[in-house]
Design a protein that fits this description.
Mean pLDDT: 84
Number of domains: 2
Radius of gyration: 30 Å
Shape: elongated
Strand content: 15-25%
Oligomer: single chain
Order of helices and strands: HHHEEHEEEEHEHEEEHEEHEHHHHHH
Helix content: 40-55%
Low-confidence stretches: none
Number of strands: 13
Distance between the termini: 27 Å
Structural class: alpha+beta
Largest sheet: 11 strands, mixed
Length: 382
């Protein structure tokens, strides 16, 4: 109890210094948490990928289409349950800044994605309407879309202005599921391209549903072997690997964000170490007095460590408490990532960083206080 009282008094003896240190710690922990949440958001798509889905694309590049005739051959392979077509559309809604993912998909596409929840009535309405489309809940909330609206999408890969009618709004089976995209009929896209005599019967990727997760690698090898030495060789990989391929394009950006987050912690560590060093230096005579009346080196070390832990606990707790509302505000204002939520792992990492700063900053001052000689300490002038 006596030790705790001394820790509290020492921590708040210089209130302005303590306030500024706690504020700096809170800002650093907040910044670290936000930067780590950005990294998590970058990997959200890959994290949500299913192990029961494979993606077959051109072995050359995603920009190279595969023949539509491949679907029947893939579907006939052992272990394959379903095959769906998907083409990236790449259009723009009203203004260039209003960009969101759009996919031309086959009618059985949703059978492979049970995590997208849609009413039977809406799905039936979509299947009946050649120009019908489905939009995700996040996308609908962002732009205020509702069933029955007509969406004019200006194509970039596929030129012209395309009009789609919203026939349904799908939700994610789980809160963390990304639903910021639009789906429409691949057949409608293909028929239009055939009339224009451009890129007909071309598929961007095939989504392959499998029965046995353990056979995923073997099935992927068999699919690629089927089309080896053809004019359009394939590359089949897990959905997660496919998603990570896009993330890999931003590896340098992600690495920079990670480095900045660690630099923030190192800076606040230097600030905290300086604070503890100043506090210990000012109290050298007090530590010598405590030694003179019988308190040992261990007690002095615990006194300094306790002060460091208390200050870092206050700053860390404040920073962690501010992270959740800050992330919610960032998602509302910036709307860059469809999923931008602070994970439990990020909160644990923030707490670990605060603890590491507290322990590291206290090591040198605690060691010096424990070794101080009584005579030298009493002569010391802060």
């Amino acid at each position: 109890m006596f030790l705790l009282k001394l820790v509290l008094r020492n921590a708040f003896r210089h209130r302005l210094r303590t306030f500024l240190t706690v504020t700096g710690l809170a800002v650093a922990v907040l910044a670290y948490g936000m930067l780590q949440t950005v990294v998590d958001a970058w990997y959200a798509g890959a994290a949500a990928a299913s192990a029961t889905r494979l993606v077959t694309r051109s072995a050359i590049s995603l920009a190279v289409w595969l023949p539509a005739s491949y679907e029947a051959r893939i579907r006939g392979m052992e272990g394959v349950k379903r095959v769906a077509r998907s083409n990236w559309f790449g259009g723009v809604y009203q203004e260039p800044k209003n960009f969101f993912p759009q996919f031309a998909v086959s009618d059985n596409y949703l059978d492979l994605y049970p995590e997208f929840v849609l009413t039977e009535a809406e799905r039936a309405a979509w299947l009946r309407d050649r120009k019908g489309c489905l939009v995700g809940r996040q996308l609908a909330d962002k732009f205020g879309f509702k069933v029955g609206d007509v969406l004019p999408i200006r194509g970039t890969i596929y030129p012209g202005t395309w009009e789609f009618v919203i026939r349904g709004v799908f939700d994610g089976a789980e809160p963390g599921k990304v639903t910021n995209h639009l789906l429409f009929h691949w057949d409608y896209l293909n028929e239009t391209m055939r009339k224009a005599k451009r890129r007909a019967d071309a598929v961007g990727v095939y989504i392959v549903g499998i029965d046995d997760i353990d056979s995923a690698a073997a099935i992927a090898v068999n699919i690629d072997a089927e089309f080896r030495n053809s004019l359009a060789e394939t590359l089949t990989e897990s959905e997660q690997a496919f998603q990570l391929g896009f993330v890999a394009m931003s590896d340098q950006i992600i690495a920079a964000i990670r480095i900045v987050s660690y630099v923030v912690i190192l800076i606040i560590l230097a600030v905290m170490a300086n604070t503890m060093a100043m506090s210990a230096r000012e109290r050298t005579s007090e530590y010598a007095t405590l030694k003179a009346i019988g308190f040992g080196p261990r007690f002095l070390a615990l006194l300094i460590l306790g002060e460091s832990l208390l200050i870092c606990a206050l700053g860390g707790a404040l920073g962690m408490a501010l992270t959740l509302p800050a992330a919610a505000f960032f998602k509302t204002v910036a709307a860059i990532f469809p999923i931008f939520a602070v994970s439990g792992g990020t909160l644990l990492a923030q707490a670990a960083c605060a603890l590491a700063v507290a322990l590291t900053a206290a090591i040198v001052p605690a060691a010096r206080a424990a070794r101080v000689r009584i005579v030298d300490g009493l002569r010391a002038i802060a």
